[in-house]
Amino acid sequence: MTPAPGHAEPQAAERRRSGRRVTDRGAEPTQAWLGSFAAAPEPAARSGPGRRADAGTAQPAFQRFYRLFLGARAVIGLALLLAQGAGSVLGLRALLPALSLALAYAAQALLLWLLPRFRDAGAGPSLSTPAVAATIVVDVVVFSSLHLLDPASGFNYVALLVLPVLMAAVLTPRLTSLATAAAAALVLLAGAWRGTLAGGDLAVLMMQAGLAGIGLFVIALLAGELASRLAREEAAARGSLELARQQAQLNRLVIEQMADGVLVIDRRMRVRAANPAARRLLADEGLAPAAPFELLQVPAWQALAAAVSDAFEAGGWGDGQREAVLDFGPGGQRQLRLRARFTGRRAEDRLAVPGRGAGEELCVLFLEDLRSVQARTRQEKLAAMGRVSAGIAHEIRNPLAAIAQANALMEEDAEAPDQQRLTRIVSDNVERLKRIVDDVLEVAPGAAPSARLIDLGGEVASVIAEWARAEQLEFGPSSRLQVQLAAPMLDTPEPMFVRFDPDHLRRVLVNLLDNAHRHASAAPGAIRVVLAREASGHARLHVASDGPPIPPDVERHLFEPFFSTRSRGTGLGLYICRELCERYGASIDYQLRPADQPLRNEFSVTIPLAAVTPTAPLP
C-alpha cells in the first residue's frame, strides 16, 4: 500500500535519523551489522512507525543473505562427502566418525536448503532467531570436530571455519560475530596445542594458529562492515524508490484534475499520455480514446499534428504558443491555444551521435479552449467593472427617485397633451433606469447565494407553465413550444435535486425562453426545452430555437454586460444569467448546431446534482 503523501516527509526524516543512529553507534559492541536495516531488535521495533518501515524495507536483503549461506552449506556438505569418498579411493586413511559427521552435516544442510519451511525459518522479525543461531553453532561444532578428530589427515578443515564466521558477521550482532571468530580461533589454538603433544614445534604451530585466528577476526570485521554498508544503501534506494512512486502518484493526480489539457507526444505523432481535459478537447462530443493513440489517424487533428511537428523541427515556437483549429465537420469547430514544452533530452544529448544512447525527445503539449481563455480574461475585467458599477448604481438610485417624484408632480399639473406625452417619456425612461440599477445590484460582487435543495424537474415545469400562460402558448403537438423533461413528466423514479435559488432559476429560464420566443418562427416546435440527467452527475437544461444563427462576431460577446442587438435592450440579460449560474456552481453556454438540424440556436445550462439520502429531509 502506498503511504499517504503527507507522511512521506516524516518517514524520510525518520529514515535519515535511523541511518545516523547506525553510523553513530558503530563502536557499540552489541549492535547488529544488519540489525538496523533488516530485522530490528525489540527495543528498536518500539521506536515508532518510521523504524518499523525501515525494518520491513530491507527484510528481503536479510532473506537473500540467509538463503545464500544455506546454499553454500549444502555445497560444502556435498564436498565433504565427496572428499571423504575420494580419500578412501585414493588410499588416504578415513576415520569412521569423520565420515559419519560429514554424512550427517550434508543431510541437514541439504534439508535446510531444499525445504522452504526450513529455508524461510530465518526470515523472522529478529536476527537472533533460533534457526540462524543453530546454523552457526552447528557449523562451528562440525568443522571444529572434523579438524580435531584427525589433525594429521590429508584434509585441511581450517578454511571451512570461514563460513560460520562470515555468516555470523553478516546476520548477527557484532558481539555474536566476534564471539564466533573467537571460538574458531580457540579451535585452531587447541589443534596447535594437540599437535605439540604429537611432537610438533610449539612456536611454529602456535604462530600458524594465531595468524589464522587473526585472519578470522579481520574477515568478521570486514564482512560486517560491507554487509552494513550494503544494507544502508539498499534501504536508501528503497526509500528513494518509494518517494519517487509517491511523487509520480501526486503528479498523476494533479494532471488528472487539471482544467487544461495535457498531451505527451513523441516524434511519430503518437500520444503517449492524455488527461481527461485533453481527451474532452479533442472530441466534438464526449471523450477521445484513451492513450496511446495516433494524432494522424483523425482528420480533425491534422492541424494539431502539423503544429506539433513544427515545434519538434524548430525546437519550439517563437512566441511560445500557437493556435490550432479542430474541424469536426459541418458546424463543429474548436479553436485551441497550444503551449509546448520538451523533455527527455539534455543539452549534451542534442549533440550526441545518433544511435549512441541519446534520450528520446517528447513534447508535453498544453491545450486550452480559446473560448475559455477569452471568457476568463473577460471575467477578470468584468469583476472590476462589477464593483464599480455596483457603487455607481447605489449613487444613481437617489437622484432617480427624485426625478421620478418630480415627474409625478408635474404629471398631476399637466393638462396639455404635449406635456402629458413628455411626462410619460420621462416615466418610461425612469422605469428603464430602475430596471438597469436593479439588474446591476442583483449581480453585484459579494452577494451571498441563498441556495436551497429543489426538485429541478418540478421547478422547470412550473416556470414553463407560468411563462406559457403569460405568452398565451398552448401545449400540444402543434404548439410552438415543445417540452421534454426527464422528471417528473416521464415518471422517472428518481427526481433530480439541485441546490439553486428558485427565483434565480426562474429568472435564468425565463430570460432564455424570452430570447427564443423573440427570435423563433411561428412553426410548430420552433422552441424546444429538454431537461436530461447526465452520467457525469450533472443535469443539463437545453433551450433551442429555430431562429437565425447568431453570427460569430456577436456570439463572442453574448455574455458580456451592456451588449445588445436591440435598440432598447439593456444587454444585461445573458450576463445576469451567467452570473447567477456561477453562484451555484452551474454554467451556461451557447452552441450553434449543424446546418442539417432545424433548431440551430441552443443555450444549455449545466447544474451539478446534489447528493440526497433517502431519509434526508428537504429544507
Can you give the helix content as a percent range?
40-55%
The structural domain count equals 4
Biggest sheet features: 6 strands, antiparallel
Radius of gyration: 43 Å
Count of DSSP-assigned helices: 18
Q: Largest beta sheet: what is the strand line-up?
A: 3-2-1-6-5-4
Q: Averaging pLDDT over every residue, what do you get? A: 75
Structural class: alpha+beta
Report the uncertain regions.
1-58, 122-128, 346-358, 487-492, 614-619
Percent of sequence in beta strands: 5-15%
Quaternary state reads: single chain
Shape: rod-shaped
Give the tally of β-strands: 13
Q: Ends: how far apart?
A: 42 Å
Give a verbal description of the structure.
With 619 residues, the protein is an alpha+beta fold. The protein has four domains: 27-245, no CATH class; 259-348 and 359-369, PAS domain (Beta-Lactamase, 2-Layer Sandwich); 376-442; 452-608, 2-Layer Sandwich (Heat Shock Protein 90), CATH 3.30.565.10. Helices cover 54% and strands 13% of the residues. It is built from 18 helices and 13 strands. The strands form three sheets. A six-stranded antiparallel β-sheet has the order 3-2-1-6-5-4. β12 (587-592) and β13 form a beta hairpin. α1 (8-24) crosses α3 (49-89) and α16 packs antiparallel against α18 (573-583). The longest helix is centred in the middle third of the chain and has 56 residues, at 202-257. The model is unreliable at 1-58, 122-128, 346-358, 487-492 and 614-619 (pLDDT under 50).
